[in-house]
Amino acid sequence: MHYDFVIVGAGFAGSVLAERLASQSDKTVLVIDKRPHIGGNAYDCPNEDGILIHLYGPHIFHTNSPDVFAYLSQFTEWRQYEHRVLASVDGQLLPIPINLDTVNKLYGYNFTSEQLADYFKTVGESIDTIRTSEDVVLSQVGRDLYEKFFRGYTRKQWGVDPSELDKMVTARIPTRTNQDDRYFTDEFQYMPLHGYTKMFEKMVNHPNIHLKLGTDFKAIKDDLSFDELIYTGPVDEYFDFCYGKLPYRSLRFDHQTLDVSDFQPVSVVNYPNDQEYTRITEYKKLTGQEHPKTSLTYEYPQAEGDPYYPIPRPENAALYQRYKDLAEQQQGVHFVGRLGTYRYYNMDQVVAQALTLYKKLIGADSFHDVIKS
Ligand code: FAD
Ligand code: UDP
């Protein structure tokens, strides 16, 4: 059959565009994913014990965009959840982002917020131009806290020293002088009440949307008939790596279920230093599910494997720019999403990016107009 649009990838980018094009613009859409399921990296499913887990690591929804929140709320109810993370440092579990309690507990101080602000001024290193992920943290909290909380974690996670990574990586994590121990301060922080996959099912459940899962686009592209293509896979792969490979960081997920109901005090505990894994997630504490057993995921960073993280470094940005220039020359092909645009984007940013592309495709005037049902 002939389709108005073929969309490669059934993650947030692909599903949002399929949903909008089908339900609002009456377009016929074929969504292809090489994985056997929808949802991309946000896919969740019950494991063999019936505990809802995230197959590709913990996904916590947070946004400051009322539009993104309103858009997704058409497809799910929400569970209120504010994310809190502890880091295992020097034998203690301490709040990360670093806050007043982190410093007082780590060093046995009794600082007030004002005293901590003064302390950070004393230990923070003076750096003229903040360029790297090392600069960000050293300038804010000084060398000791940098080494205990950031250097080891970042080297494990990215396979390079923080001094070789763009500042935006560690700048994701703020420094606080109060006792706020939330990981995010966004206005909207929720988990989809019945999980991400149920939300995606509602999005793509439309007579104009056909799904072809477990299929690589490359294998079938010559047999497809369509007007326009939306591509959310790795942009370098689309162009057969003609300028060389864009570096991505991968992860190995070790999923485990224990015969105890409770494992750790919060949903995520980070291990900056002493372990090969970066963090352990306990899903029941994200989802609120009650169960006599508990399921965990250990994340082991690695170079090879599925591309999970674009690596923000100047030379990679330069290489991506070449692919972007090539992408812009293609007629009727649109690149979007974390892999399609080589951006370290959170879910809400990908939804916004996809809605923006939809707005462009239909020539709408306002962003607000494109989120309505
Ligand atoms: P993806 O979800 O990667 O979807 C792309 C899809 O394209 C994939 O399913 C892939 O199989 C398919 N594909 C690729 N190539 C082909 C091909 N040739 N043929 C067919 N199909 C193809 N964000 C948050 O906001 N909060 C979080 O807590 C959070 N935690 C994260 C934790 C981890 C471990 C990771 C890796 C990411 C996390 N993210 C989080 C980011 C979030 O996963 C992404 O922003 C979002 O899923 C990106 O959606 P996407 O559609 O761009 O890409
Ligand atoms: N980070 C760190 N120590 C921590 C938490 C984060 O060094 O305890 C750094 C690390 O470089 C990490 C980055 O901050 O990759 C961003 O952390 P975030 O939790 O946002 O990563 P993600 O959830 O995207 O993997």
Automatic annotation (TrEMBL):
Which Pfam families did the record assign? Answer: GLF, NAD_binding_8
Cofactor section: FAD
Give the top-rank taxon of the lineage listed in the UniProt record for this protein: Bacteria
Is Flavoprotein among the key words of this record?
A: yes
Q: Which UniProt keywords apply?
A: FAD, Flavoprotein, Isomerase
UniProt entry tagged with the keyword Iron-sulfur? no
Q: Which residues form the UDP-galactopyranose mutase C-terminal domain?
A: 148-344
Q: Which family does it belong to?
A: Belongs to the UDP-galactopyranose/dTDP-fucopyranose mutase family.
Q: What NCBIfam families would the database entry show?
A: UDP-GALP_mutase (TIGR00031)
What this protein is called in its record is UDP-galactopyranose mutase
Source lineage = Bacteria, Pseudomonadati, Bacteroidota, Cytophagia, Cytophagales
